[in-house]
């Protein structure tokens, strides 16, 4: 009984923080989403109870689906290269046969971009890829282009820059997580497979990947949540406009506009919709992983 009391005492700070900063905001958002409450000039309208009217307004608005598509495209463009690069680097660093030196230094270097505030990172890239920035100057100096390329006036170049920045900021964190998982694999398993004639690719696909599956699942879920919450990089890079042609406007940027216009009911409904979408996608990923593991068990 005493042990259980000490356990509750030790986890109570986490529970308190979770209730105050996660559970309570969700409940407040759900409550506000059921009311019409906004400002018309200097006059506040509401709050008036409207039930699910805010949800109907959002779900019948075609814009939200466009912004969801923008968010998904930029997340995929950033996450797929990030995952491939992180798995490759983690495999190299964990392979004792390569005898790589300075691994600690490289781990520090690749994690460093994760420590930079996204706002600073986006401002830096905005300067680099501006019409009169160093990237255009270099391309013109090498005679690759004759005149400055307008990176921020083209849909796919702007999306690619957002994806590239997210990939650069987070691939170091992903690499270290996967590296920790690979270093935890018993070397004797790989050595036994090599003795039996397994190739490097077979060892990687048949031993390494299955054993780091829980970490891969964690990486996918956290990246998915981060992708849905994508805000700071496109917000600063496009100065909050989501241009060109709203092609980089994310769902969170859309919600932010409602917050600044003090349309609390719609923004609360949108935040709760995002919560549901995140939960559903996470459940789908977990279920797919469970089915894969069951299939392997049956064989």
Order of helix and strand elements from N to C terminus: HEEHHHHHHHHHHHH
Hey, roughly how much beta strand do the residues contain? under 5%
Here the CATH topology equals: MetI-like fold
Return the average pLDDT rounded to an integer. Answer: 87
Low-confidence stretches: none
Instruction: Please bin the fraction of helical residues.
Output: over 70%
Kindly report the name of the CATH homologous superfamily. MetI-like
CATH architectural type? Orthogonal Bundle
Anisotropy-based shape: globular
Secondary structure category? mainly alpha
CATH class: Mainly Alpha
Number of domains: 1
Q: Write down the Rg.
A: 24 Å
| Major sheet description | 2 strands, antiparallel
By DSSP (H or I, 4+ residues per run), the number of helices equals 13
């Amino acid at each position: 009984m005493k042990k259980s009391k000490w356990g509750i005492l030790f986890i109570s700070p986490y529970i308190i923080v979770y209730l105050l900063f996660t559970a309570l905001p969700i409940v407040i958002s759900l409550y506000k989403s059921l009311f019409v409450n906004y400002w018309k000039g200097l006059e506040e309208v509401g709050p008036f109870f409207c039930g699910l009217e805010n949800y109907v307004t959002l779900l019948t608005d075609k814009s939200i689906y466009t912004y969801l598509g923008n968010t998904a495209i930029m997340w995929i463009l950033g996450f797929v290269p990030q995952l491939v690069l992180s798995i490759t680097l983690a495999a190299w660093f964990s392979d004792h046969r390569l005898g790589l030196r300075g691994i600690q230094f490289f781990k520090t270097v690749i994690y460093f971009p994760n420590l930079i505030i996204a706002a600073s990172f986006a401002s830096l890239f905005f300067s680099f890829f501006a019409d009169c920035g160093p990237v255009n100057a270099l391309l013109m100096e090498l005679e690759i282009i004759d005149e400055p390329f307008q990176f921020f006036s083209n849909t796919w170049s702007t999306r690619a820059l957002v994806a590239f920045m997210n990939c650069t900021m987070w691939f170091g964190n992903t690499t270290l997580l996967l590296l920790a998982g690979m270093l935890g694999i018993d070397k004797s398993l790989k050595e036994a497979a090599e003795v039996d004639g397994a190739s490097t690719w077979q060892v990687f696909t048949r031993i390494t990947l299955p054993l780091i599956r829980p970490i891969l699942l964690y990486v996918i879920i956290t990246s998915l949540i981060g992708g849905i919450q994508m805000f700071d990089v496109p917000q600063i890079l496009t100065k909050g406009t989501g241009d060109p042609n709203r092609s980089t406007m994310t769902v969170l940027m859309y919600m932010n506009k409602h917050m600044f216009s003090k349309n609390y009911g719609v923004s609360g409904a949108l935040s709760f919709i995002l919560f549901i979408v995140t939960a559903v996608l996470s459940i789908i990923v977990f279920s797919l992983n469970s089915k894969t593991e069951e299939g392997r068990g049956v064989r």
